[in-house]
Amino acid sequence: MQRYFSRKLIIYALTFFLAVTIDWMIPRFMPGDPIRNMLTRVSVSSNPSAIQMMYDYYTHLFGLDLPLWQQYLNFWNSLLHGDIGISTYLFPTPVTDVLWRAVPYDIFLLVPAILLSWYAGNKFGAFAARSKWLDNTISPLGYILTATPYMWLGILLAWFFGIVWGIFPIAGAYSFNMQPHLSWAFIGSIFHHWFLPFASLFLVGFGGWAIGMRNMIIYELEADYSHYLEALGAPRKLIRQYAFRNGILPQITGLALQLGVIVAGALVTEVVFSYPGIGYLLLAAIQNQDYFLIQGCFLFIIIGVLLSNFIIDIVYVLVDPRTRRGMTGESA
Amino acid sequence: MKKQKKKNEFLYFTLRNRKLQIGLSIILFFLGLAIFAPVLARNEPFAYVNLRGAQPPSSEYWFGTTFFGQDVFAQFVLGLRATFLVGAIGGGLGTLIGVLVGFTAGYRGGIVDELLNMLTNIVLVIPTLAVLLIIAAYLEVRSIFTECIFIGLTAWPWAARAIRAQTFSLRTRDFVDLAKMSGMKPLKIIFTEIAPNMMSYLVMTFILQFGGAILNAATLDFIGLGPTNAVSLGLMMQYAVLWGSLLLGHWWWFIPPGAAITAIVGALYVMNVGLDEVFNPKLREM
Amino acid sequence: MLKLEEISKVYRVGAFGGKELHAVSNVSFNVKDGEVVSLIGESGSGKSTIGKMILRLISTTSGNIIFNDANISTLSGGNLKEYYRNVQGVFQDPFSSYNPIFKADRVFRLIREEFYPGTPDREWDAKIEDALCAVGLNPEHVLNKFPHQLSGGQLQRFLIARALLLNIKFLVADEIISMLDASTRIDVLNLLAELKSRGLSILFITHDLSLAHYISEQAVILYRGCVTEMGATDHIFDNPVHPYTRMLMASVPRLDKKWEHGVVDLKEKHAAVTGCCAFYDRCPIADKSLGCDKFQPMLTEAEPDHFVACYRHVER
Amino acid sequence: MSLQVDNLRVYYQTLRGDVKALDGATFTLADGEIMGLAGESGCGKTTLGHSLIRLALPMRFIEGRVTLDGEELPIWDTEKMNDFRFKKISIIPQYAMNAMNPTRKIGRMTAELLGSRKVDFKDILPELKRRLDLVKLSHDVLDMYPIELSGGMKQRMVMVLSTLLDPSLLIADEITSALDVSSQKAVAEMLVEFRNRKCCNSAIVITHDISILYQIADSIMVMYAGQLAEKASTETIIHAPRHPYTKLLISSLPEVGVKYTERRLTGIPGNPPLLLDPPVGCRFRERCPIAFEKCIEIPPFVEIEPGHFIACWKEAGTHAQA
């Protein structure tokens, strides 16, 4: 078990290292000059020498005039001190502050959406595997849901419930005319705004998990241990119960593998509903060419995904006796 | 004679499988629209043809017109082309890299496998879209082609993982040893002994990669990081949302592109299940 | 003809090769021209590993395999091909030996592509016909068919015919009849005996004592990668000395006598024992004072052409 | 008489049509009898064994009557058979290595299985422990997961599990074929011990290895191509078989001590027929050295001596004509 975790941790450490390196490399090796772009955007002055001065100033400020390896080490150094720069678009707020403001919204949106869709999808998928009739009605629904692009489902929900029926707001995290404070009205407003983005993330995920579980159950019901139980006259209920329990294990691993897709879904969903999480922030950063903010968003996303992966690993070990008793179940 | 029989059996299942029938007809329908797009589209996609601006579908403009009076149908069929292109090239590249990495890791084993496996797991953990976003953000000019390349370059890990596992189980089969004892070189063994046995698997991998590439491209386009010089279904959705089609009730603008993507990707998934049933006799319904 | 000198195979298991698994330890024996040597062992004894090392499908960790004065681990390219022209193998599972999506005679075509590229069609067809007749197959019945259309026995003969196309000198037959039906297996065994009388050397790998006795004049008994007893088949069968061999003889189901109801040994084999006799943890006569718990005993001569690796025997 | 099977026919459904894997089997099994069921692969021995307890797709029941201890078994009805399974008839499957749920501790799995059959685990625990002793397994296995056991241990555990409710009939399907020689002997002898201690009344041991049967079975029934060929006491089958197939089969088996240089054994020429479209009449006809015109009809499975049944026109002689 110790080996299982040390192996995982090595992978995560390497992933983090690679991600940071990518994060550092991209603005430097892509065609185009980020500082020039930034200056043209904010163009305060049309005086070429003034622009050149600002250019030099910023180049020096961001350390872009140093040798590459120095830049790279500096990047790590400031990163480890929790400093990932200052947002140019929300100047002069440090990027970390900007991101910390967005993170609660992401947690509030993603955690329930991921967990509930996973739970409900698995239950529903197991239910679908019960009979051919159920299977034929539930499975197509699952396939349609999982094939739907997140933003389109978001758009449809926003249109139906926000515009046509007008029962849910379609933008922001709370009413524009409210200030954050602790009151029932405000909390109500938070949930009111939360519901549609949550629903669109939930539904797409739900379809995928339901399909996955349905296939797992059918596979498990054909396993030798199921046949043995049948031969000993065990009731269907017990056999299904075992199949569900064993089928859920790969679904846990599947959750870890799906995180990237779910994060992508969350990004666009936040964009559709102008929900002030990291996805929305990232879009704003891209549109305003705020490179430090882009880098910061990327880092936060990576850290979030790695943490979630680690939590899932721990849960997996707790649930699968095979890993606990010294055997490595899933390899990495 | 017997081979004929075997082929026929396969064909029989392929044609009889309802999931394959449904999936394939949907794909062929949209593919047809995409291929004949230049004939079907009666207007330039971005031309402001309807001076009255947005209008619901009519006999003149089948899918209505946009806020600016552009022909939605023309954008739609041409956007389909981009969708299929992304699926084919992006999905194809993803499959190709996955195949190369998977074959190498699975066949060579040992330290090569350890390293490739580690690389695969690392890339698997990094959220693809986040990487694509920042790459796209720094590119000033983006074409559908570059989009395809980057999607392909980031989508391969799970394919590599799956193919590695398959190769691993095949390479321990005795016929591989027999091929070695016939003096065959490793590369030849991989391509003439192992790969043909995995054909069904490779096809299914490609189908899933195809669908995944389409969804990824739609997301990129929607965020505004799609091709800067072309029309695509994701871009249509982006413009629709950007120009208030929700508030103004221009449903004909945002429904067709999303519906087409859902239909195509859903059809691909369903086809995949159908193929699995055909290839895997255990799943065939009696 | 073929000489194994102290060959060993150690697998590194675990994520970074942390653990060692001794599959084969210091095995030496010879196979002479026109001789059948049986390599007898249960699952996990390392018998197939030895077969695969001889066929160069697995590398040796240490020790040499000498074929006609050439160390086979140094062969590569053309030399390796030349080696395969002389040495071939047939494996246990006839269906796994064929690529299921191709016709069975593809195994012949591969030989032709690699070894006889210039041979004219007619000559080649005649060659195939000869080889098939030599293994007792009717070309009309077996050519142009898919593996699943042929029986296990036919498939194994087919593979032997494949080896004959190369005019081989040495055949590794790894459990080649254990998956065949009783009514056909004996014929394949007889075929091996015929080939032997025509000068072919055979390493006959099996877990079945009666088959080994039926066909071979020399036998090597393996337990956990170590040779426990070897020598002339008759000597070993008439006078088994090693406690493992005796246990094997006592528990093998026979048609000529019933089992003696004795204490059944149910001790489980542990994954790897190092630093003691391989049979130490199951041995009924182990004696610490002799060093059974410390070292693997060397092979010593019990009688002419009969060697045993047991301290108790030395003592006697 | 413990088990009586009358004209049992079970086919396999395939695309190309029905494979006639078991075509009319009629035999009986005495109280306390261990009967070996032998034959080559594809002869229908497994089909026969499985159809008695779990007749599932693609197997298809055609006709026949199975009576166990005077009660007819509804083998065609999966639901109704549940009342008999485990309690009256049980199986040690060929896949015993994978027969236990990998994610449940063995004890808990046993308790849940028993609970689902309305048997209290606590009541049976003392007996379970006695039987674990019998197969030389530590009581600790109940607190382990299946992967913590070796193959041989799992095999013995499943043996105990399957016979826990003292079934009248036990079907043992190739239980020794995956084991090493030494464990093979242990498991086979334990099976006899189980019968002696009434853990099961009678047993059918399915195997392709006749020498194992010679060691443990009271009687042997030989099948060929979906039909019964011969049934007799073990001694008779091994030393004085009458059916030409049995004779050839027995004589092709190498014994320890036989050398090809001294006595050359021979196999049976030819291959068994495909059961998709089996030949009419005696199915061994084409490979049989003594076949004659009459063999174009299906020979009945008749008793030629007390307890000795064969299906052969020539050997059964007047018994078959009657």
Structure description:
The complex is a heterotetramer of chains A (about 325), B (about 290), C (about 325) and D (about 325). Helices cover about 75% and strands about 0% of the residues of chain A. By secondary structure, chain A is mostly helical. Residues about 325-330 of chain A have low confidence and may be disordered. The model of chain B has no long low-confidence stretch (mean pLDDT about 85). Chain B is about 75% helix and about 0% strand. In chain B, helix 4 (about 70-110) runs antiparallel to helix 5 (about 110-125), helix 7 (about 145-155) packs across helix 11 (about 200-225) and helix 11 (about 200-225) runs parallel beside helix 12 (about 235-240). Chain C is about 35% helix and about 25% strand. The longest helix of chain C is centred in the middle third of the chain and has 16 residues, at about 180-195. The two termini of chain C are about 35 Å apart. The model of chain C has no long low-confidence stretch (mean pLDDT about 85). Chain D is an alpha/beta fold and about 325 residues long. Chain D is built from 11 helices and 12 strands. In chain D, a hairpin with a 2-residue loop joins strand 9 (about 220-225) and strand 10. Chain D is globular. Chains in contact: A-B, A-D, B-C, B-D, C-D. At the C-D interface, helix 7, helix 8 and helix 10 of C face helix 6, helix 7 and helix 9 of D.
Condensed summary:
Helix content of chain B is 74%, strand content 0%. Chain B has helices at 2-16, 18-35, 37-40, 72-108, 110-125, 128-138, 144-155, 157-171, 174-181, 186-194, 199-223, 233-242, 245-248, 251-279. In chain B, helix 4 runs antiparallel to helix 5.
Topology:
The complex is a heterotetramer of chains A (332), B (286), C (316) and D (322).
Chain A: H1 2-29, H2 34-42, H3 48-61, H4 68-80, H5 95-128, H6 132-147, H7 150-164, H8 184-221, H9 224-231, H10 236-272, H11 278-287, H12 291-319, H13 321-324
Chain B: H1 2-16, H2 18-35, H3 37-40, H4 72-108, H5 110-125, H6 128-138, H7 144-155, H8 157-171, H9 174-181, H10 186-194, H11 199-223, H12 233-242, H13 245-248, H14 251-279
Helix pairs in contact in B: 2-4, 2-14, 4-5, 4-7, 4-8, 4-11, 4-14, 5-8, 6-7, 7-11, 9-10, 11-12, 11-14, 12-14
Chain D: E1 3-14, E2 17-29, E3 34-38, H1 45-51, E4 59-68, E5 71-72, H2 78-81, E6 89-92, H3 106-116, H4 121-134, H5 151-162, E7 169-173, H6 181-196, E8 202-207, H7 210-216, E9 219-224, E10 227-233, H8 234-239, H9 244-251, E11 302-305, E12 308-310, H10 313-316, H11 318-321
Parallel strand pairs in D: 3-8, 3-9, 6-7, 7-8
Antiparallel strand pairs in D: 1-2, 1-4, 4-5, 9-10, 10-12, 11-12
Strand content of chain C: 15-25%
Largest two-chain interface:
A-B, 60 and 51 residues
Average pLDDT level of chain C: 86
Q: Spell the H/E element sequence of chain A.
A: HHHHHHHHHHHHH
Report the CATH superfamily of the largest domain in chain C. P-loop containing nucleotide triphosphate hydrolases
The biggest sheet of chain A amounts to: none
Helix and strand content put the structural class of chain C at alpha/beta
Shape of chain A: globular
At the first level of CATH, the class of the largest domain in chain C is: Alpha Beta
Strand order of the largest sheet of chain C: 6-7-8-3-9-10-12-11
Q: Major sheet of chain C, described briefly?
A: 8 strands, mixed
Domain tally of chain A: 2
Output the number of helix runs of chain A. Answer: 13
